[in-house]
Amino acid sequence: MHVAELVERDPAVIEATRTHRTLAGQVQALQGRANEAHREAQAWREAHPIRAKAHDTGVMRAAYLDERAQVIEQVRAQYQKVAPQATRAREVAEAVRNATTTRIAQAQAPALERIRALEQRAAELERIERERQAQALREQQAEGEARLLVQDMREMAPGWTEDGHQLQALHAPENKDALTMVEGLAALPLEEQRDYVAEQLVARLAKDPAARLRLAEQVERVQRGPEQDHDYGMSL
Predict the structure, then answer these.
(1) 185 to 113, 180, 193: CA distances (angstroms)
(2) Residue 167: its pLDDT value, please?
(3) What pLDDT band is residue 97 in, cutting at 50, 70 and 90?
(4) 99: exposed, middle or buried (Cβ count in 10 Å: 0-12, 13-18, 19+)
(5) CB atoms within 10 A of CB 235
(6) Which residue in 68, 97, 146, 210 could disulfide with 41, CB within 3.0 to 4.6 Å?
(7) Gap between the terminal Cα atoms of the chain
């Protein structure tokens, strides 16, 4: 439960608030009664202008206006007594509320600190899990790329070394890493041996993005074959 909710349920706050609301209600009622007496007197004056003038000049007092004036005077006296009480009650209610808020907040501080620590720990664990999943995805992608690359070299090993243009590209100096891999796989007599070595290559290349990229570029060049020189010049 929040501090504000606990403050509103505190008995001292409830009592101080009730006292203030009671006195404030009395002040409002007195103001309303005085306004009503003024309206009644004004309406009577408009309905009886001659008698109102006689009343004002002292020629003939109007009992109704005297009664309204007496009501207004009584209300004024009560207002002067109650209004300061309402003001004081409001100040007391605010002081009680502030003191109660401070007391409850201090009492809840250790629990709130533990909650904040737990929330921070939960956020940290969530961040770690996101990073773990992202790393696992990167590793999975790297392994997939490495496996495709090794598969391409295994497909070269049985026959491409005897194929003319691929053989020429494979033995090009810039493709020496691919040549080493292909020749090594081709030299293994048993399929089980090639499987084992291939898995070792996949594991190594998956952890070495620079070597994987370099080897992928070489394999791609071998698959394309040697570059052909083209002369686009014009003879005169």
Answers:
(1) 62, 9, 9
(2) 59
(3) very high
(4) middle
(5) 4
(6) 68
(7) 94
| Number of residues in the chain | 236
Global confidence as pTM: 0.48
Higher pLDDT, 61 or 171: 61
Q: How far is CA 236 from CA 27, 32, 39, 54, 79, in A?
A: 113, 114, 117, 132, 118
Greatest Cα pair distance in the chain: 140
Residue 22 CA: distances (Å) to CA of 19, 27, 64, 71: 5, 9, 31, 22
Q: Which tens digits make up the pLDDT trace of 10-31? A: 999 999 999 999 999 999 999 9
Which phi and psi angles does 90 have, rounded to 5°? -65, -45
Task: State the chain's mean pLDDT as an integer.
Answer: 84
Listed residue (164, 160, 165) closest to 181, CA to CA: 160
**In the block, which residue shows the tokens 């100096």?**
173
Q: Which two tokens stand for residue 96?
A: 């009680």
Q: Which of 143, 170, 168, 141 is nearest to 155 (CA)?
A: 170
- Phi, psi at residue 215, to the nearest 5°? -70, -35
Which of 209, 6, 195, 212 is CA-nearest to residue 108? 6
Euclidean distance between CA atoms 25 and 179, whole angstroms: 97
